[in-house]
Amino acid sequence: MFGQVLARMPFARSLEQASASYLVAATDPRYESVGGMFIVDGKEKPSSNDSYDEQKARQLWELSWEWCGLDGIHGS
Hints:
Blueprint lengths: L1 H6 L7 H13 L10 E3 L2 E3 L8 H14 L9
Antiparallel strand pairs: 1-2
């Protein structure tokens, strides 16, 4: 069943494909001192424009605390 679903989702990756990107990111000397980067098919890819929006990041942080029931514990 998974194979049929995967075939209909062009953005989806098999376990082997997904793990290859992790392996490159973890072992390639080019990325030794780099963090916070997407590696897809052995190549760097920029994250979405939304990922650079500090206001959205703060809102996500605050909502995450709330959703986890931690908003009363920490005043972020």
